[in-house]
Specification:
With about 575 residues, the protein is α/β, with parallel strands linked by helices. The chain is about 30% helix and about 25% strand.
Length: about 575
């Protein structure tokens, strides 16, 4: 059953249909405020803070919470007078009570805060279906104003510095049930509501349980993993997105809101007209509770009868990392692409246009942590005085497709999922207004940020340079090219790299074609495509080579990609003179 306020594993969830506060009194009377205050009081009691000792000297337990709530109701309207003398002990030391208000507010800001508004459900809160953004802004101002009034009526003076923080929610979305061409065997998910508007209040900072992904995604052939599962209408959401050219329905539960919402910065959100009364190309159920949390399932299935790819991961603390959301989607995409004779490329591609109007398209291929994205970002910084435009076609995964006898490259994502440690210092802070940060204080900290438009990644671009990212060699040359196709195939197929902590792997590793997301599972079919596309690239004079990023060489994590970018820039400059 839906609730007006819930504490879920990733934070708290407000249901604006069931409750929306229009006044300070409603706010302080709400279940949300009651639960949040209790969470804070339990926290300071557990840590025996000075604030807990101060408040505990007046009241204890439930009596403390009830008295504080009543006191704040009074202070949100007026200063204390003789009528409320019973509350005077709380403000015997006004500075300490102000500290309590500030610590309580800071505690609230540290919680991941989400809101939902259903378009097609009755509203007890007075909100209409089109008011999500305005409701968020009004609630923000209400919380700020209530706190300021309470502090003013305690301290007896107004603040001279006012900080207009994002104090209501981090993210919210409106939902509606939308009819789609649901095969009979998928009736169990047919009525899950779709996200049709998402409001993000950046910078959005989340702290998932895990910081790396481990293992592979496994194909199952004897059963459809999402048949006969049950998804509760009040607990699950469907986010319709486009991964490359494919339409995907991604299902996630309220307990994993942060992972589902982050999709908005990485993939194109599908318009209702694109999925209503339509059958998707792929369906992904993420974090389903199958009652076997110790048995991690990361399965995908090709539903040939309905021409759909299906992904399934069961609920576990182990999968509370965005890599499981992103990489399963890319695996589904790549397996479908392989079946369509398209070659998945794990790498990055940019379309570089210099100020003299010369255009060059560069693909850098490599597994996670190889330095492909970092080298291209270093190139952007290095060549900024000579660049007219630099368009990212893909930052992590793309495909090659033969079109009229020549290979064209297409992207899958509009965003980038990048290690903070490997970015140029300060870059992420320049993009605060549209970034999502994950565990920014830990190893393998990540930022997810939009970098391209859907039109740019799906236009189809020819290739001038196709390079393998070597992050482990300390060889003096930063850039070299293959004259022999067999030598090139050996390097690209071996897929060597020095693991950078982006997965559970360590040391020098190998992965077939540097791509464990589809090609590894479909190696036989992929090998045929590799031979086909590499022959075509050599025949069409695409420059196939290797770029030494040195990202895995200790002490060269930033200088290595910069040196590689310098060499690439000089080569392009020389060829365009």
């Amino acid at each position: 059953m839906a609730k007006e306020f819930e504490v879920v594993r990733s934070g708290i969830l407000l249901n604006f249909n069931l409750k929306y506060c229009h006044s300070a009194f409603e706010l302080l009377e709400s279940k949300g405020f009651e639960r949040t205050l209790k969470l804070f009081l339990d926290h300071i009691e557990k840590n025996d803070t000075l604030t807990h000792q101060y408040l505990g000297s007046v009241y204890h337990g439930d009596e403390l919470q009830e008295s504080l709530t009543e006191l704040m109701k009074v202070l949100s309207v007026q200063q204390l007078d003789d009528e409320y003398a019973r509350y005077m002990p709380f403000i015997s030391d006004r500075a300490k009570f102000v500290t309590f208000i500030d610590e309580f507010y800071t505690h609230w800001l540290k919680i991941e805060r989400y809101a939902i508004l259903y378009h097609d459900r009755p509203s007890r809160s007075g909100l209409s279906k089109g008011e999500l953004i305005r409701a968020i802004d009004k609630l923000t101002n209400l919380i700020i104003d209530t706190r300021r009034k309470i502090k003013k009526n305690v301290s007896l003076k107004a603040s001279m510095v006012l900080r207009q923080s994002r104090s209501s929610i981090n993210a919210g979305f409106s939902l509606a049930q939308v009819p789609w061409s649901c095969p009979a065997s998928y009736g169990n998910i047919a009525e899950i509501p779709f996200i049709n508007t998402l409001v993000l209040m950046p910078p959005f900072i989340v702290y998932p349980e895990e910081n790396t992904r481990s293992g592979f995604f496994h194909e199952v052939t004897d059963h459809n993993p999402i048949e006969n599962i049950h998804l509760d209408l009040d607990s699950w959401f469907c986010y319709p997105i486009k991964v490359g050219k494919y339409l995907v329905f991604t299902y996630f539960p309220k307990e994993f809101m942060s992972q589902g919402i982050t999709l908005c910065n990485l993939f194109e959100t599908a318009d209702r007209s694109e999925y209503e009364n339509t059958k998707p190309d792929m369906v992904y159920v993420y974090a389903h509770d199958d009652k076997e949390p110790s048995n991690l399932k990361t399965d995908f299935y090709h539903d040939k009868e309905n021409d759909m790819m299906v992904g399934y991961i069961n609920r576990s603390n182990k999968i509370d990392y965005f890599g499981y959301m992103k990489k399963m989607l890319l695996t589904l995409h790549n397996v479908k692409a392989i079946s369509n004779k398209e070659l998945p490329i794990h790498g990055a591609m940019v379309k570089i246009t210099l100020k003299n109007d010369v255009c060059k398209n560069v693909v850098i291929m490599g597994d996670s942590g190889a330095g492909k994205s970092e080298s291209l970002e270093a190139f952007r910084y290095l060549a900024q005085d000579y660049l007219q435009k630099m368009v990212i076609i893909f930052d992590d995964m793309g495909i090659l497709k033969l079109d009229k006898g020549k290979p064209l490259a297409f992207g899958t994502e509009i965003g980038a999922f990048v290690r903070l440690d490997d970015l140029d210092q300060g870059y992420a802070y320049k993009e605060l207004d549209r970034s999502i940060f994950m565990n920014p204080d830990k190893i393998n900290a990540r930022v997810i940020i939009p970098v391209s438009t859907y039109e740019e990644i799906t236009a189809g671009e020819p290739i001038d340079y196709f390079l393998y990212a070597n992050n482990y060699s300390d060889a003096p040359e930063a850039l070299s090219f293959f004259d022999n196709i067999d030598e090139a195939l050996k390097v690209f197929i071996e897929g060597k790299r020095m693991a950078k902590g982006t997965t559970s792997e360590k040391g020098l590793t190998e992965s077939f074609f540097a791509n464990p997301f589809g090609p590894v599972q479909k190696e036989k079919e992929t090998r045929k495509l590799i031979d086909l596309y590499f022959k075509d690239m050599f025949d069409k004079d695409v420059k196939v080579g290797m770029i030494n990023t040195r990202l895995g060489v200790e002490g060269q994590e930033q200088t290595g990609p910069k040196a590689a970018a310098t060499c690439l820039f000089e080569m392009i400059q020389n060829e365009t003179k």
